[in-house]
Amino acid sequence: MRKLTFIMILLFCATATYAQKGKVAQASSYLSSGKLDEAKKLIDEAITHENCVNDPKSYFIKGQIYQAIYESPLADYKKLDPNALDVAWEAYQKVQQLDEKGKFPKKLKVQFENLAIDYANRGVEFYSSENYAGALNAFKRVLEIEKSPIINNPGIDTAIIFNAGLAAQKANLLSEAEGYYKEALKYNYEPAKTNVMLASVLKEQGKKEEALQYLQKGYELAPNDPFTLVELINYYLLGGEPEKAEVYLDAAIKQDPNNPSYYRAKGTLYEKLSQPEKAQAMYEKALSIDPNDFNSLFYLGNMKLNEANELNKVVFNIEDADEYNREVPKVYAAYGKAIPFFEKALEIQPGERNTMTILKELYFRLRATDPVYQEKYDKMQEALQKAE
User: Fold this and answer.
1) How far apart are CA 298 and CA 281, in angstroms?
2) CA–CA separation, 94 vs 98, rounded Å?
3) Is the distance from CB of 22 to CB of 55 less than 8 angstroms?
4) Backbone CA torsion sign across 26, 29, 35, 37
5) DSSP per residue over 60-105, as a string?
6) Rounded CA separation 147/140 (Å)
7) Rg of the chain's alpha carbons, rounded to an integer?
């Protein structure tokens, strides 16, 4: 009886094994004919119920099917599994574990080469949709695949290394981004741009001195690169040594004399250096190139407003009543000079709250001098209330 039971168990295992391998073969046939839904259904059943054998071929076909699902241009097939690419990768890992006889390396090599392309495309997709952590993981997988002994690729994919740095930076994984950028620089990948990106990451981590070193390296390598120039300008302009930004601003203006942003930045520099006349000239230059440059208009208006405020302080401290009455109209006139700049700025960016608030205060200040200002004040007050 025991022998009969043992024979029955063997027959059951053999039958089950045959049945599962039959499903695997049919799944492979469906894959060849492009019926990915049927192929997926059968391979999932075969893998799940494979009680008598661990077959690397089954996992290889599973990997092929799921990879085909990811690569399919048909939305209905893509919906079969949103993580199809990862499932394919895991299946191929299982193939390597089970392939004791070494039958699959050549076949896996073809799949891995395509898989690297798939993950690179996935990384770009994730990056474009602002899923930066997903993009980073995809680029990491590309590098992992390319280092695999299955591919045995002696080359270095510097573009993917750099893209991993970009994705890590966007994901605010600054230490990882630093590592990838430094790795890209080892292979001299777009050194001007990579130096600048690395400097940005270092600066965000508080490593300012190291950041400056890489910025300057980038500038030395590409002194006419606008991206590098802008980063150097911002570094000094927003840092503690704004005067050092001037040489880079001049270089940028020489390179692109019709770019209003450079003149505007130089105006900001001169304001920081307490040189208002030069600052005004730069803002006016920017506006001569682009009359609708909101920031230059706003900055000019703010300069006029500051001048009026300073004059108001002086007049407010005059003790002689007659002299005070003579000087007050000058204060009103000074405030009036700021209004056109803010009004023009508001035309360019309707609803910009800071501009609206400043104009409301100016209209209120001048409402007694002209009924028009009272009317403008009322309208601005109403507009601000509606915007709340």
Assistant:
1) 14
2) 6
3) no
4) positive
5) HHHHHHHHHHHH-S-HHHHTT-TTHHHHHHHHHHHHHHH-TT--SH
6) 11
7) 34
Structural element, H or E, at residue 345: helix 321-348
Within 8 A by CB and 6+ apart from 314, the residues are 327
| The pair of three-digit structure tokens given for residue 324, joined into one six-digit string | 């005070």
CA-based nearest residue to 242, from 272, 213, 214, 215: 272
- Is the Cα torsion angle 280, 285, 291, 294 positive or negative in sign? negative
Buried b (16+ CB within 10 A) or exposed e, 320-349: eeeeeeebeeebbebbbebbebbebbbeeb
- Nearest in space to 90 (alpha carbons), one of 52, 125, 120, 62: 62
pTM of structure: 0.72
Cα 253 from Cα 266, distance rounded (Å)? 10
Here the tokens at position 130 are 């602002």
Please determine, for residue 10, whether its predicted confidence score (pLDDT) is greater than 90: no
Q: What are the structure tokens assigned to 61, written together? A: 């076909």
Task: With beta carbons less than 8 A apart as the criterion, state whether 54 and 101 touch.
Answer: no
What residue type is 37 in one-letter code? D
The answer to whether 133 and 176 have CB atoms below 8 angstroms apart is no
Phi, psi of 277 (to 5 degrees): -65, -45
pLDDT at 309: 95
Over residues 134-155, mean pLDDT: 90
Quote the CA–CA distance of 279 and 321 in Å, as a whole number: 36
pLDDT per position as a tens digit, 253-312:
999 999 999 999 999 999 999 999 999 999 999 999 999 999 999 999 999 999 999 999
Of 59, 80, 85, the closest CA to residue 70 belongs to 85
Q: How many CB atoms lie within 10 A of CB 231?
A: 23
How far apart, in whole angstroms, are the C-alpha atoms of residue 201 and residue 43? Answer: 46
How high is the pLDDT of residue 295? Answer: 97
Non-local (6+) Cβ contacts of 131 within 8 A are none
